[in-house]
Amino acid sequence: MHWLTALAFGYALGSVPFGLLLAKAAGKGDIRAIGSGNIGATNVLRTGSKWLAAATLLLDLAKGFFAVWLAAIWWPEATGPAALGAVLGHCFPVWLKFKGGKGVATAAGVCFGLWWPIGAVYAAVWLGMLGLVRISSLAGMSAALAAPITATFLERWDVVPALWIIAVIVLILHRENIARLRAGVEPKDGGKR
């Protein structure tokens, strides 16, 4: 039953809505009322505060990392479920009627927690694609897909299933972005829709 405990623990930690809490504490109001309505760093950036968005990004990374890191100490055989739980918690927090973020930053933290080479590839693909095409949604989806492929290549069979599920969740939550990409109207960073 350790996998179920790890899944629940990961979910609880992942469901802490740092973006929402930070924005409210900074007097920016409810970020769910602007932009995409999500609680992640990209939407926090729409408040006009780069430092607030950066803090949200780091905290969302941290909750993914610590969910896996602590699970590795307490339930070493259940880091995959803890990773999945953290992303599920961020994307579908019970406290916010299951409407959270899109999971890209939390998934990055999860990958570093599972094994640093997986996290390094995730970060390299994320930042590399962002620098190349300047489209954050495409960069995030590419990184999410790179993680299970990397884990497979490195023969980390214990975490491959969880990483594939996480990648699918990230893609599903980006379905509107995918539609805009196909239509050629997805905005670039710093640009307008």
Structure description:
This protein has 193 residues and is mostly helical. The chain has one domain (2-183). It is built from ten helices and no strands. It has helices at 2-14, 18-25, 41-45, 50-74, 79-91, 104-114, 116-133, 136-153, 160-173, 175-183. The N and C termini lie far apart (47 Å). The model has no long low-confidence stretch (mean pLDDT 94).
Number of helices: 10
Q: What string gives the helices and strands in order?
A: HHHHHHHHHH
Radius of gyration: 16 Å
**Sheet with the most strands, sense and barrel status:** none
What structural class should be given to the helix and strand makeup?
A: mainly alpha
Question: What form results from the Cα inertia axes?
Answer: globular
Mean pLDDT across residues:
94
Name the beta content range: under 5%
Give the low-pLDDT segments: none
Q: Outline of this structure?
A:
The protein is mainly alpha-helical and 193 residues long. The protein contains 10 helices and no strands.
Explain the layout of strands and helices.
Elements: H1 2-14, H2 18-25, H3 41-45, H4 50-74, H5 79-91, H6 104-114, H7 116-133, H8 136-153, H9 160-173, H10 175-183
Helix pairs in contact: 1-4, 1-5, 2-4, 4-5, 4-6, 5-6, 5-9, 6-7, 6-8, 7-8, 8-9
Q: Top keywords for this entry?
A:
193 residues, mainly alpha, globular
